[in-house]
Amino acid sequence: MSQSLFAALQALVGARHVQSSEEAAPYLTDKQGRYVGQVIAAVHPASTEEVAAVVRACVATDTPVVVQGGNTGLMGGATPDASGRAVLLLLDRMNRVRAVDTDNDTLTVEAGCILQTVQEVARTAGRLFPLSLGAEGSCTLGGNLGTNAGGTAVLRYGNTRELTLGLEVVTAQGEIWNGLRGLRKDNTGYDLRDLFIGSEGTLGIITAATLKLFPLPKAQVTALLAFDSLEQAVALLSHARAGFGASLTAFELLSAECLALLREQFPDGPRPFSSARQPWFALLELSDNHSESHAREVFEQVLGEAFEQHLLADALIAENLAQSQAFWQLRENMSDAQKRAGRNIKHDISVPISQVAAFVAHTDALLQQHFPGVRHYTFGHLGDGNLHYNVAHPLDATVDAHMAHYAALSRLVHDSAHAHGGSISAEHGIGQRKVNVLGRYKSAVELDLMRRIKQALDPLNLLNPGKVLEDMRP
Length: 474
Hints:
Layout: H1 2-13, E1 18-19, E2 39-43, H2 48-60, E3 65-68, E4 86-90, E5 97-101, E6 106-110, H3 115-124, E7 127-128, H4 141-147, H5 154-157, E8 164-170, E9 176-179, H6 192-196, E10 205-212, E11 214-215, E12 219-227, H7 230-244, E13 248-255, H8 256-265, E14 280-288, H9 292-308, E15 314-317, H10 321-332, H11 334-341, E16 348-350, H12 356-370, E17 375-381, E18 386-392, H13 399-403, H14 406-419, H15 438-441, H16 444-457
Parallel strand pairs: 2-4, 3-4
Antiparallel strand pairs: 1-2, 5-6, 6-10, 7-11, 8-9, 8-10, 12-14, 12-15, 13-14, 13-17, 16-18, 17-18
């Protein structure tokens, strides 16, 4: 059957756009090298109609379909399993800009578009598409939609879901739903758009989206702030929200341990606060729609009040674009710094902002009790309560010995996040990495509703089986 399906796929999209499992090897291992899959074929369709035809061919042969964007995910959600039964659908040829509407402030693009390209198209039109994350030069819009990506500007603009007005989706039956409406109000039934966003390719295959655009800010001001405690950082965030209002774009947290790691792994990189003793730092950015002078005036006023109220230990305000970029380089280099230092156990958790300090204090102490000497590299999006709570090996232990504790250590972290009213996945998704632990933190009612939705939309369980929910194949 696999040979006849391979030939059928070649007929549908062209022989040169269908690869064998051996030819598709670069797509079959996830970004972190944890998962390696096999496939009947990897297919590169050029249109939504071709995607639909491929899905119909797979339905006819009871063949699972896994869709992949830029392969930058961290949960193995876009990697097929090792059975070799699936077809891998790659949307890299579907990268066209279909429409730019500056009067409606919308942009319609296909799912294979690189996020950075989407940003550049918007900027060329005199607009801003604010979704921004470390992998923006290689991740695709489809992957961003599939995981409801967050990034550094969620505080002001929201997650990918909030930035999306309409979708085009190929269903599990190979039908095409054209929901590419540029409407901000459409109260005509169930919100199918929000159902597909964040579903990691398990309910339908997103092929295009209509996105919200925003005015380009006339000025941006960046500062690196130092705090005597995490509680002080949270208090300053509240003060900044009140003072800056909607102009507050980013509030990115870095621990002193993170800055020390950055200095160690990037000795030629920026070294602000190199002699500071404060335990916490934050990168704050203000986007102003008036002028540079107005932005700086408001910035200095709000931070001045913060000093008077003892909400801030120190501050470095970027005087120019180069200094601003240097500050942001610290945040952007965190992933590479950790990679250079050796693997660590990563967690993408969220808790209410009011619980961040309590969560960190409790969880740090808990891990030291159970795994003495582990090192904490905590950073992330304090403005929306999303922390990348990463844990490195003790200096007197090996990386492999530390990684052997992955399940037990992560359970403590996830239990703590849950106890503080949080989530075990803020922006990275569930994929296959967390699928077996989801039942510990979701109620029976929630899981049953999720399974019923999956069963209704994909009754044969052919779309990305074994991701988000455990494999439901009949």
